[in-house]
Fold this protein.
Amino acid sequence: MKTTDAELASGAFIKLLRASSAVSARAHRPLAQEGLSESQFGVLEALYQRGPLCRRDLAEKILKTGGNITMVVDNLVKRAWVVRKRDQEDRRVVTIHLTAAGRAVIERVYPLMERSIAREMSVLSAEQLATLSTLCRKLGLPEQ
């Protein structure tokens, strides 16, 4: 019996989701050991790399909803790792800033995550990683 295009696509999709979930769970273990959620790490990393951002830009950067970002930022504020600041020109605009304590956390945790991700991806050759990157980029493009 010949496999249809839909069956091939469904099979590949399920394998992609399972692989993504498994690799993500293993790669993010250092975060749990540091008491950080993936979203908290994402916010700290985005602020570290990009500088102060508004809630909407943070949500877009780490692929979360605005409501989720509010909760994540609230928890980071409680830990004194970020602060909210109102724009002096337009008081409606609030940007999220990394504090010195937050910078220390991301500078300590980021290398742990980098090593963890490298370890997870080490089963692939450099050529396979390049191919995977190309395929993921192609899958992630907006609908044509």
